[in-house]
């Protein structure tokens, strides 16, 4: 039995999306239980699929708004649905927590409530990005850390490797370091030193380091994992979202331009729908917050019920394969290297 | 009469691409002249369009290879076509130089031969990226500078503004600072300080600062110009290239999947071709190296003749509107602010 605590109030749509997603998730996962966290009156009436033994409502009086500053979420809203969901994990009442709320607040509360794992200075956000091979590339960090040291990048690589090994079944997933060229001499000082640390870690058998990769390798699927600082990762992800949106808009415009193109669009519908399914980022919704003493997953704030259900499934899978123990083991294996590195704050930049 | 010095040996294809592009360019620009720089025997036979008064061959005995280290290109190949083309600009024999060669070598040689403008610590690479409005977003820096200070980002913003004002005719093009959120408090220390400097510059009338933008704004066309450091810019551009390539591959695969989809593809051809034309990055080939005492443009190494011709046209347009004087004027306007800032090397990172 795996139990997930769900922040039902988070995201752009709140219970209107999270509750139907929870019902669909439960129907597909017979050994799952859900703790539905939120303001009890906002969760009524519960959909039929959420009434029964595998579901309970855990009351929380407050809600973290999408635009609440981190300090407000952390210090003033101590009974928020986001925090109560994470406390369920801390108290052993749930195996993982899922929220579509404000990312900064979620990370801050998760870090405060759960604390980081030994050997990890900063948690990171890891997500999957579909690539041309039909699989997905796992990328981290995606915005939690705007300034990173080489040591932080090594920690991200270890955590990402544990995540992919646990959830994909690949024993030794490959790690690429995001850079502006493949050669070892490329990049700024932090990146060059991170490359060196990753090579040392690979030599010790801590991970499988491929070397530097470039932005286009994310979509080529050159490596299973791409490691970068949160600033670069966030820009790469948002840039991709922007380009994908533009491609969708332009395709639509061209297929709507004339009577002829509209007729062709009807005929091409099955083809275009297959294409759309293959690039549907909703299938990959659910980013892992790694490096904490508990499993927390972040759904996109704008997720619909289908997408939010994927985030729930991702949290469920991570709990089922005991991701937390795998991450701990990965870090423990690299402990000598991590201890040798100056921890704590990164160099100014 | 505008005269462009062309490094005919550069790029993945050399004269096989550059010479036909030069011929097509001359045919379309009756008041242009070309200096064709390269190994004379490699430029024979000249296409018919390149024989005549508006064209001359300027011999250079060496060629910078695409994988030559910067030091080799700069110190050992002193008679390379790349260098001789840039020297034509330095010596007043050409109004601009264009090369499809190795970016690192081109930047190093251009900087060495031409020197930077007063008030500019480091040249930057600016390119245009098509956006959903049908126009293009000008982005800089794209790889020349992997570590930037806030002052460098201000310099990029001033140069980008001068470029867009000169070539688009918009008097006050808007500048966005690439960040991981719109709020002023977002980003690392360099970005926050750059935001402050840009606001000061805007208050002084040096430029039109919109504020922070995110990765997706590049393709939305939220601002005319997007400013970032070269590491982030390179990753964003390469990531976009990777996603665009994936979209192309998946669309092709889906339209080739079955007899039905192949038949639909034939019918959809005019629609798909219009779409393709709208996202055709070749139309935007030709990045400006800004901040030098002379105009230099960089073509994509893999450019075909159509793309290389666009780079020539871009250099021609820049010379025609006296881009160099515009950049100088923009910098001079902001001189008090630039002088007040600590110049030189950026903070370690």
UniProtKB/TrEMBL annotation, chains A, B:
Substrates-to-products reaction catalysed: a fatty acyl-[ACP] + phosphate = an acyl phosphate + holo-[ACP]
Assigned GO CC terms: cytoplasm
Pathway membership: Lipid metabolism; phospholipid metabolism
Keyword Cytoplasm: yes
Species for this entry: Tepidimonas sediminis
Subunit structure, interactors included: Homodimer. Probably interacts with PlsY.
Key words of the record: Acyltransferase, Cytoplasm, Lipid biosynthesis, Lipid metabolism, Phospholipid biosynthesis, Phospholipid metabolism, Transferase
GO molecular function: phosphate:acyl-[acyl carrier protein] acyltransferase activity
UniProt function note: Catalyzes the reversible formation of acyl-phosphate (acyl-PO(4)) from acyl-[acyl-carrier-protein] (acyl-ACP). This enzyme utilizes acyl-ACP as fatty acyl donor, but not acyl-CoA.
NCBIfam families registered for this protein in UniProt: plsX (TIGR00182)
UniProt keyword Cytoplasm present: yes
Family matches, as Pfam families: FA_synthesis
Biological process, per Gene Ontology: fatty acid biosynthetic process; phospholipid biosynthetic process
Gene3D superfamilies, sorted: Isopropylmalate Dehydrogenase
Enzyme class: transferase
Protein family according to the UniProt entry: Belongs to the PlsX family.
Gene name as annotated: plsX
Protein name (database record): Phosphate acyltransferase
Localization (cell): Cytoplasm
Primary location: cytoplasm
């Amino acid at each position: 039995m795996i139990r997930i605590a769900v922040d039902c109030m988070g995201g752009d749509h709140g219970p209107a999306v999270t509750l139907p997603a929870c019902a669909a998730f439960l129907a597909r996962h017979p050994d799952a239980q859900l703790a539905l966290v939120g303001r009890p009156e906002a969760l009524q009436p519960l959909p039929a699929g959420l009434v029964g033994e595998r579901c309970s409502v855990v009351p929380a009086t407050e809600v973290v708004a999408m635009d609440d500053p981190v300090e407000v979420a952390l210090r003033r809203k101590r009974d928020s649905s986001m925090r109560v969901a994470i406390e369920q994990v801390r108290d052993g009442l749930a195996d993982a927590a899922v929220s579509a709320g404000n990312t900064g607040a979620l990370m801050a509360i998760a870090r405060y409530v759960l604390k980081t794992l030994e050997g990890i200075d900063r948690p990171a956000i890891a997500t999957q990005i579909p690539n041309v091979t039909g699989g997905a590339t796992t990328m981290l960090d995606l915005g939690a850390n705007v300034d990173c040291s080489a040591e932080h990048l090594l920690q991200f690589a270890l955590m990402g490797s544990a995540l992919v090994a646990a959830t994909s079944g690949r024993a030794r997933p490959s790690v690429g370091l995001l850079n502006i060229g493949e050669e070892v001499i490329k990049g700024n000082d932090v990146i060059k030193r991170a490359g060196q640390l990753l090579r040392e870690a690979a030599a010790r058998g801590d991970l499988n380091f491929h070397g530097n990769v470039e932005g286009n390798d994310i979509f080529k699927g050159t490596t299973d994992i791409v490691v970068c600082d949160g600033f670069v990762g966030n820009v790469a992800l948002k840039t991709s979202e922007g380009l994908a949106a533009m491609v969708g808009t332009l395709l639509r415009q061209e297929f709507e331009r004339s009577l002829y193109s509209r007729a062709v669009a009807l005929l091409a519908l099955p083809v275009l729908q297959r294409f759309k399914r293959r690039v549907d980022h909703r299938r990959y919704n659910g980013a892992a917050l790694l490096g904490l003493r508990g499993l927390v997953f972040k759904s996109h704030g704008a997720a619909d019920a289908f997408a939010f259900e994927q985030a729930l499934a991702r949290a469920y899978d991570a709990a089922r394969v005991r991701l937390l123990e795998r991450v701990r083991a990965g870090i423990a294996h690299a402990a000598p290297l991590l201890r040798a590195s100056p921890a704590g704050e990164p160099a100014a930049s």
